[in-house]
Amino acid sequence: MIVVIATALGGGDGGGGSGGGSGQAGHVKQSHAPVHAPKTYEVQSGDTLTSIAHRTGVSVAVILKLNPGVDPQILISGEKLKLR
Fold first, then answer.
1. For domain 32-82, which architecture applies?
2. Quick one: pLDDT band at residue 38, thresholds 50, 70, 90?
């Protein structure tokens, strides 16, 4: 018996072909804060802007835009970052 399991992992732009795909997967990563994101995030030891972005669903660009005085290389534990 042979079993074949196939999966598609991101990377597709959803356009340019037949197949009737809606292309909605490309819209998951947005440049603005999702509605369900908390208003602020308290930096924990070891956090990076990338880890905060993954945890909260808010892009690094948005975090930096909302917190212009934050040095992305030096995050301080206990510091509060605006997320929306």
1. Roll (3.10)
2. confident
